[in-house]
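Collaborator request, handled under Task 6.
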Amino acid sequence: MRGEDPFDEGATSILRQPKAVWATAGASVVAFMGIGLVDPILPSIAKGLDATPSQVSLLFTSYFLITAVAMLVTGFVSSRIGGRKTLLAGLALVIVFAALSGTSGSVGELVGFRAGWGLGNALFVSTSLAVIVGAAAGGSAAAILLYESALGLGMACGPLLGALLGNASWRYPFFGTAALMAIGFLCITAFLKEQPKPARKTSLLDPVKALGHGGLASAAASAFFYNYAFFTVLAFTPFVLNMTPYTSGAVFFAWGVLLAVFSVLVAPRLQARSGSLKVLGGSLLLLAVDLVVIGYGNHTVAVVGTVVSGAFIGLNNTVFTELALGVSDAPRPVASAGYNFVRWFAAAAAPYFAPKIEEWSNIHIPFVVAAVAAVIGAGIVRVRRASLSREAEQLQPVHATQDGVTAFAN
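Structure tokens returned to the collaborator:
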């Protein structure tokens, strides 16, 4: 499977988009900011709420556990009420629970509010790609590029916002996110028209049934192990680096910039030259090496290794997105829902198990475990390459197809 190079279609078309696309992409940036927002303030939250690293890491676990389960629900909801209403419902939940997170008096309350936040984010993020695909000019390549740009920018800016606001109080980043999402809510309300509902409504079990396809099951399995490695970096490294919010925010901002550059600019070119599966397998192995370097290097080496990991994560995100969208015969929303249902469980597991593994062993072993997970992910790609090699079809930028208006990607 070879990736499309969106730049072959003319870079100018990527920037000439309807207001609805920019409104959705802008709100997506803020939604992705919420994932890395807490990174630079994790030590501050632990101190402020008198909690252990493993307790604070549950902020990620509750968030992504609910996100994983919600993948079975979002298609069911959006195929009945429409994409626009699903986006607005997700944004409303994020606004409420992000604001409530800032008022938390205990780590238990904060973990619970993050779970509600995860539900809202799942409803929004799972629908935003399909809305962008349906409304964007330039076809699927331009749509995926815009979506990955929003993801990368959000991942980069989230830690920066968390650092800038969190230096004064760990509560402020949560209030800031609520305010930004409220702006996104108004933009979606003003500029996005209702998307036509799909001809066939999605059932709760359709995503699970879609995993019966060998290629999709292989992609989901590989992504599961990859996401364990990914979120070990995102959720556990801040405790290892033990920096101030400003310096930690700067590190993860640089990490996010590399993620954005490699997902948007580098990945399409490497895919066009070498093929998606070779890029994916090689990137997963390099990520494994980088994780070992982070785990055993001194502080400076760990900082550099953390930043560099953004490059491999950016490559992986783009290729996995395309695999989820094109490897099976199932409608894209259904296939991607099943794929994300599997992989987000790893994103929930890593933040919980990494600190526990450190408590049971030492600070190096969580990174070794994450590296092994990345190698397993690469091994699945290698062994199952025949099932994964189906060419992805061009995403149709139409507004009413049997695929519906909901897709689930990064």
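The cover message to the collaborator said: "Residues 1-12, 391-410 have pLDDT under 50 and may be disordered. The longest helix spans residues 245-274. Please let us know whether this matches your experimental observations."
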